[in-house]
Amino acid sequence: MGHVPGCSEPPPAPAKTSAPAKAAPAPAEVGYDLRRLRPRDEEALEAMFERLRAQALADGKRVAVLFSADWCEPCRELETELGNRHAAARIGDVRILELKEEDWQAAARMDEFNGLRKRWAPQTGSYPLLLLLDAEGKRVDEMKEAIARLEKAGVQPTLANWFAGTRPDAAG
């Protein structure tokens, strides 16, 4: 049988090229630090919230509180975003304490749920309500207000942009 050119020969060595330039390492990405508060017989909601808020502050985190409901379409969209990852420098310093209406309804403790919510917003039953708090637990900013402000500034109105833009070192 005759020789078929190229079939029995080793492939040619690849041409030598210079080593590729090293790219800068990508910033570390993290997921949102989200803690869901569920009813516990041995702890009132107010005490649970204050305990978890104090722990977040002790961990060096800013605190946001989210009131949501499963039936709420914007809440479901927000929940999808909360499953995303972003640069740690943008979202890593915020802990979100989430309260779902259904958890507290099922435990017949909506009075506690609404009582906590009324600390920052007089209206109940409207979702989502996502608030950024200061170290004393007072309202600093609210998501819907932040969206309007970011849009006016020409910044994409995302949760990550909101959190990054409200960092104490972002003032300027």
Outline the fold blueprint.
Layout: E1 29-31, E2 33-36, H1 45-58, E3 62-68, H2 73-82, E4 85-87, H3 88-91, E5 94-100, H4 101-106, H5 110-117, E6 129-133, E7 139-142, H6 143-152, H7 159-165
Please tell me about this protein's structure.
This protein is α/β, with parallel strands linked by helices and 172 residues long. It has a single domain (29-170), classed as Glutaredoxin. 34% of the residues lie in helices and 19% in strands. It has helices at residues 45-58, 73-82, 88-91, 101-106, 110-117, 143-152, 159-165, and strands spanning 29-31, 33-36, 62-68, 85-87, 94-100, 129-133, 139-142.
Total domain units: 1
- Rg, alpha carbons: 25 Å
Using the coordinates above, name the CATH class.
Alpha Beta
> Which bin fits the share of residues in helices?
25-40%
> What is the tally of beta strands?
7
Looking at how many chains there are and whether they match, the oligomeric state comes to single chain
- SSE string, helix = H, strand = E? EEHEHEHEHHEEHH
Sequence of strands across the biggest β-sheet = 2-5-3-6-7
Question: DSSP helix count?
Answer: 7
- Uncertain runs are 1-11
Quick overview:
The chain is built from seven helices and seven strands, in the order ββαβαβαβααββαα.
